[in-house]
Specification:
Layout (H helix, E strand, L loop, with lengths): L3 E7 L3 H12 L1 H8 L2 E8 L15 E2 L3 H4 L6 E4 L7 H10 L3 E4 L2 H18 L3 E2 L10 H8 L5 E7 L2 H13 L3 H11 L7 H4 L2 H15 L9 E2 L7 H9 L2 E12 L2 E12 L11 E8 L3 E8 L3 H17 L22 E10 L5 H11 L4 E8 L5 E7 L2 E2 H13 L5 E8 L6
Parallel strand pairs: 1-2, 1-4, 2-3, 4-5, 5-6, 8-10, 10-17
Antiparallel strand pairs: 7-9, 7-11, 9-10, 11-12, 13-15, 13-16, 13-17, 14-15
Helix pairs in contact: 1-12, 2-12, 4-5, 5-10, 7-8, 13-14
The protein binds NADP nicotinamide-adenine-dinucleotide phosphate.
Length: 427
């Protein structure tokens, strides 16, 4: 093969070494697809003296200049993780004309504009398929496969850890804390799981997808974010009884007046394929005007799945180094403020078992324009009544105002839980 593309890896940890191995093990196939031999020429690590089985020691370096300052390196593969120094190094590489491939959701979610600008300045491409939903080719689909479409909605299960926890809670009927502790023991959840369980990880990912789908810079700080820490085994059991599963759903939806971004535990129909996304898997559901509904499913984490997407980006850049411009991220489409979601809700309330109490609840909800679709009451062991309500669509401000007034009634009423219900294009 006459052409050789030289890669400089920034980082050779979990993902870096899996990608290195994949490029080595499938060298012939990848060279054929890329039209060039792909060679890892250098790899930046913190400690080059540490044994790294299967890695040619001659490529290891502790100096970033050996990569960014080397004109023979064509593509920089950023796998350091974290916001800095990853973002600055990628921007520098792009400005100097080197193409960049990354799996870094944090850098993309927080600094997409700056990185795209550097890409334009240097005339060098930035590819980031592996930054969202690891093995699912969702970035490519949004950027290339849906060019003729106007996207109305992107939503997904984008965090494997929380999906694993919710699935275990549903399968075994056990509580959140117990499953989280077990997931940490098994290595499925980080020792500090806050970014996952509080929904921030999903917020990073939906802001990247929303920026591409709607051509508007979306920041994770603009995502209304609620994690799974308050999801109770009781909610999961009631949801199932009424034909729903509870998932942590990340949502970007174009509505009249602008774009809504949210990450919330959500009841979705149990017969929708997204309800069956199990364990660490991810799924993305899309509504677009020409093609209609689309759903993607696959491994959302893990070295092999991530390396698969990184290798695809590397092949793509080797084949067409200057083909695809970075997306334009305007600010034309207004972003709807937090608290402006419109939808159906599931409410779980505790009430004294006395005449007229259901009437009081219905009156308050009705006064705020929240109409009840179904209401079920059952007796608790302590003699109080548990009231389960599914509402029709209403504005979030109306839902919240009604719940606030219910709390102020002083009639012994207590809202235990309130979650969105999303039909995902169905009933
Ligand atoms: N894990 C997944 O399933 C997954 C999925 C999708 C995307 N990602 C993303 O992939 C990226 C890499 O994750 P990872 O799990 O491979 O991380 P990792 O195992 O911690 O590896 C990081 C690598 O970067 C090197 N490094 C870090 N900071 C450095 C610095 N300041 N100077 C020099 N070298 C430095 C480390 O060197 P040493 O080897 O010497 O320590 C190591 O080789 C992250 O952005 C992550 O979000 C991960």
């Amino acid at each position: 093969m006459s052409r050789t593309i030289r890669l400089g890896f920034l980082g050779l940890g979990n993902i870096g070494s899996a990608t290195y191995n994949l490029l080595r093990d499938k060298a012939d196939r990848i060279a054929e697809r890329a039209g060039a031999e792909i060679r890892v020429a250098k790899a930046l690590v913190r400690d080059a003296s540490r044994p790294r089985p299967g890695v040619d020691r001659g490529i290891l370096t502790e100096s970033v200049e050996d990569i960014l300052g080397d004109p023979a390196i064509d593509i920089v593969v950023e796998l350091l993780g974290g916001e800095e120094p990853a973002t600055s190094l990628m921007a520098r590489a792009l400005r100097s004309g080197k193409a960049v491939v990354t799996a870094n959701k944090l850098a993309l979610a927080l600094h997409a504009r700056e990185l795209f600008e550097a890409s334009r300045e240097g005339g060098a491409r930035l590819a980031f398929e592996a930054s969202v939903a690891a093995g699912i080719p969702i970035i490519r689909s949004l950027r290339e496969g849906l060019s003729a479409n106007s996207v109305a909605k992107v939503e997904g299960i984008l965090n494997g850890t929380t999906n694993y926890i919710l699935c275990q809670m549903a399968e075994r009927g056990v509580g959140y804390a117990e499953v989280l502790a077990e997931a940490q023991r098994l290595g499925y959840a980080e020792p500090d799981p806050s970014s996952d369980v509080e929904g921030r990880d999903s917020a990073y990912k939906i802001s990247i997808l929303a920026s591409l789908a709607f051509g508007r810079a979306c920041s994770p700080s603009e995502v209304s974010c609620r994690g799974i820490t308050e999801v109770d085994a009781l909610d999961i059991a009631y949801a199932r009884r009424f034909g729903y599963a509870i998932k942590l759903v990340a949502l970007a939806e174009r509505r009249e007046g602008g774009l809504y971004l949210g990450v919330q535990p959500t009841l979705i129909p149990a017969d929708h394929p997204m309800a069956h996304v199990g364990g660490p898997f991810n799924s993305v559901f899309l509504q677009a005007d020409v093609v209609g509904d689309l759903m993607f499913y696959g491994p959302g984490a893990g070295p092999k799945a991530t390396a698969s997407s990184l290798a695809a980006d590397i092949v793509d850049l080797a084949r067409e180094p200057g083909a695809l411009d970075p997306p334009e991220l305007g600010s034309g489409l207004p972003l709807l403020p937090a608290g402006s979601r419109v939808g159906r809700r599931y409410l779980r309330l505790l009430a004294p078992d006395e005449p007229g109490i259901l009437g009081k609840i219905a009156t308050v909800l009705g006064a705020w324009g929240v109409s009840i679709q179904t209401l079920t009451q059952e007796l608790c062991p302590d003699g109080r009544a548990r009231v389960l309500i599914f509402t029709h669509e209403a504005a979030e401000s109306s839902h919240e105002a009604a719940l606030g007034e219910i709390a102020r009634l002083g009639a012994g009423l207590e809202t235990e839980s309130a979650m969105w219900v999303d039909s995902l294009g169905g009933r």
